[in-house]
Amino acid sequence: MTLDVARGERRIADLVRDKQIADFETIHVRRDGTPVTLQIQRLLRGLPGAPAILSSARDITHQKESEDERKRLVAAIEQSAEGVLITDRRRGDPVREPAFEWTHRYPGDESSA
């Protein structure tokens, strides 16, 4: 169930009229009232006598929440007066914020040496 049915109807009409294929994200509501973020992929197909739209919806709620959490963490680290160095065992690339470089006098990637 969508919160904005008219918007969905306009998107469908535009797709058929313009023959555009475009993915988009939308927020729907579960039966229990909680929002769910969906990635909609669609494809315009011609059927005898009328166009048809083939759509698939993928729940990306967790992915969007993780992205938002990462952005908040990055913002907090960048605003911190404390020096922060995060290493990734898989990639081996250290992530430094400006206070770390200033505090430890490491310009650029010299701190990883």
Distinctive features:
two-stranded antiparallel sheet; elongated; 113 residues; 2 domains; alpha+beta; 3 helices; three-stranded antiparallel sheet; single chain
Task: Please provide a written account of the structure.
By secondary structure, the protein is α+β, with helices and mostly antiparallel strands. The chain folds into 2 domains: 55 residues, no CATH class; 42 residues, no CATH class. Helix content is 35%, strand content 29%. It has 3 helices and 5 strands. A 3-stranded antiparallel sheet has the order 1-2-3. Strand 1 and strand 2 form a beta hairpin. The longest helix has 19 residues. It is elongated, with a radius of gyration of 23 Å. The mean pLDDT is 77.
Radius of gyration: 23 Å
Major sheet characteristics = 3 strands, antiparallel
Mean pLDDT level: 77
Uncertain stretches of 5 or more adjacent residues: none
Give a quick summary of the entry.
Helices cover 35% and strands 29% of the residues. By secondary structure, it is an alpha+beta fold.
Topology:
Blueprint: H1 5-18, E1 24-29, E2 35-47, E3 50-59, H2 61-79, E4 85-86, E5 95-96, H3 98-104
